[in-house]
């Protein structure tokens, strides 16, 4: 007969599984499936994104978006969703195989690979602005320029082989999955602003700052006239130190080998090395203009934006809504507001025609390396303080206290010079 006061046996409870680390990366990974569903696109830089935390390529991509937003989860999620929606719309991986006009873009962009003694590969994208023959032809059609520039960027990203990544980035460690960029300004005039160049520059910054975060380790501006040194010095006043470290202006292209000692011997001779000319590097497909016209069909052209594609946004200035042309759906890209045009610039006869807004400017986006994406903006009409030689301008004075989201705006001052050949 059992004892009345016997203690009941309590079945052992299984140990609760260890919860995933409560980190921004883990949280962003958990949100990824919903982000992909909302954007309708699951590919980023050639990688098919996975919600599996063990998929290293996806983890590295998510880390890049987090780092671009200083670890802010909400900002990273917003930017990732916008970048995926943009890729869904523009299909940039297909642009790499698209043919572009040789007359407009021939000699302007290249991608090269350089091995150091340890076998590590460095990818460099080159923009040779002295090769531009006609500003209006190259930069006048903003949509076409963005497509060409995107194709070149995607070609460079392919050389990073992101699908081969085996492990996530170390916490607060170096990101080795990045490339370098060289902007060569030999034979470029910095003394007159071209509206077509300015429009293309702003669009490139607007798109790339959202769509390609943390892919550029450093930018080298070579063959920059010594007279322009003040401009880069002025950047110290309003650029975050981490971003400033990525910009390297040089009066001579040969100085590049001094900066990149580990791969100096493989650099082209005009940049201080003994390697092949940059023109022997990879580039996008280029054909004669007549062939480009034959290949274009109505189905390939961008559809006009439908008025009812999205709810009407709150009123913002035209400059705050720098756009990538003609789209059937509105894609919100979180970039910094743009400064207002001066009346003189708006009235110029050769200013490019307005385009339908696809990319809306939204505050709160933290970027850095895409800040000086196209050409230095020395030739813009400046307020009196700048005209007298002072780097301070009305634009700078009106900014809020320096924060990470303002870095892209700063570098716009480095982006819109006139790439017109000097005599």
TrEMBL record:
Alphabetically ordered keywords of this record: Cytoplasm, Endoplasmic reticulum, Heme, Iron, Lipid transport, Membrane, Metal-binding, Microsome, Transport
SMART domains this protein is in?
SEC14
Q: Where in the cell is it found?
A: Cytoplasm; Endoplasmic reticulum membrane; Microsome membrane
Q: Where is the CRAL-TRIO domain?
A: 92-279
Enumerate composition-biased segments (Basic and acidic residues): 291-304, 336-368, 397-409
Under the GO molecular function aspect, what terms does this record hold?
metal ion binding; phosphatidylinositol transfer activity
What membrane topology is given? Peripheral membrane protein
Record region (Disordered): 1-22, 289-423
Domain of life of the organism encoding this protein: Eukaryota
**What does the record give as the reaction this protein catalyses?**
a 1,2-diacyl-sn-glycero-3-phospho-(1D-myo-inositol)(in) = a 1,2-diacyl-sn-glycero-3-phospho-(1D-myo-inositol)(out)
Q: Which GO terms fall under biological process for this protein?
A: Golgi to plasma membrane protein transport; regulation of exocytosis
Cofactors (names): heme b
User: What spans are recorded as compositionally biased (Low complexity)?
Assistant: 305-318, 411-423
Assigned GO CC terms: cortical endoplasmic reticulum; cytosol; endoplasmic reticulum membrane; plasma membrane
Briefly, what is this protein's role? Non-classical phosphatidylinositol (PtdIns) transfer protein (PITP), which exhibits PtdIns-binding/transfer activity in the absence of detectable PtdCho-binding/transfer activity. Regulates PtdIns(4,5)P2 homeostasis at the plasma membrane. Heme-binding protein that may play a role in organic oxidant-induced stress responses.
Q: What protein family is recorded? A: Belongs to the SFH5 family.
> What is the designated name of this protein?
Phosphatidylinositol transfer protein SFH5
Q: Which organism is it from?
A: Trichoderma parareesei
Q: What is the lineage of its organism?
A: Eukaryota, Fungi, Dikarya, Ascomycota, Pezizomycotina
């Amino acid at each position: 007969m059992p004892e009345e006061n016997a203690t009941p046996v309590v079945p052992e409870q299984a140990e609760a599984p260890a919860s995933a680390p409560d980190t921004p990366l883990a949280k962003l990974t958990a949100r990824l499936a919903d982000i992909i569903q909302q954007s309708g696109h699951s590919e980023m830089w050639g990688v098919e994104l996975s919600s599996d935390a063990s998929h290293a390529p996806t983890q590295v991509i998510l880390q890049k978006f987090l780092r671009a937003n200083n670890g802010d989860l909400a900002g990273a999620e917003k930017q990732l969703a916008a970048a995926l929606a943009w890729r869904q719309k523009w299909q940039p991986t297909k642009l790499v195989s698209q043919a572009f006009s040789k007359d407009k873009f021939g000699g302007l962009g290249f991608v090269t690979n350089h091995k150091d003694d340890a076998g590590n590969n460095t990818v460099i994208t080159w923009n040779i602005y002295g090769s531009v023959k006609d500003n209006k032809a190259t930069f006048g059609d903003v949509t076409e320029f963005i497509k060409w520039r995107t194709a070149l960027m995607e070609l460079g990203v392919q050389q990073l082989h992101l699908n081969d990544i085996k492990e996530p980035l170390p916490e607060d460690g170096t990101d080795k999955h990045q490339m370098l960029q060289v902007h060569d300004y030999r034979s470029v005039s910095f003394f007159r602003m071209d509206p077509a160049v300015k429009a293309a520059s702003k669009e490139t910054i607007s798109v790339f700052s959202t769509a390609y975060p943390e892919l550029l380790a450093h930018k080298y501006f070579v063959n920059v006239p010594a007279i322009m040194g003040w401009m880069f010095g002025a950047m110290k006043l309003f650029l975050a130190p981490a971003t400033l470290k990525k910009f390297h202006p040089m009066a001579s292209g040969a100085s590049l080998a001094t900066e990149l000692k580990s791969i100096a011997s493989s650099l082209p001779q005009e940049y201080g090395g003994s390697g092949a000319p940059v023109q022997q590097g990879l580039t996008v497909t280029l054909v004669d203009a007549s062939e480009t016209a034959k290949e274009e069909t109505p189905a390939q052209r961008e559809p006009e934006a439908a008025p009812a594609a999205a709810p009407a946004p709150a009123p913002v200035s035209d400059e705050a809504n720098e756009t990538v042309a003609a789209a059937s759906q509105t894609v919100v890209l979180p970039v910094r507001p743009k400064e207002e045009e001066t009346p003189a610039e708006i009235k110029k006869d050769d200013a490019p025609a307005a385009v339908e807004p696809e990319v809306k400017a939204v505050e709160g986006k933290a970027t850095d390396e895409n800040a000086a994406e196209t050409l230095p903006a020395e030739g813009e009409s400046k307020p009196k303080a700048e005209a007298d030689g002072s780097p301070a301008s009305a634009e700078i004075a009106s900014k809020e206290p320096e924060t990470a989201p303002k870095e892209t705006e700063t570098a716009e001052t480095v982006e819109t010079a006139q790439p017109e050949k000097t005599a």
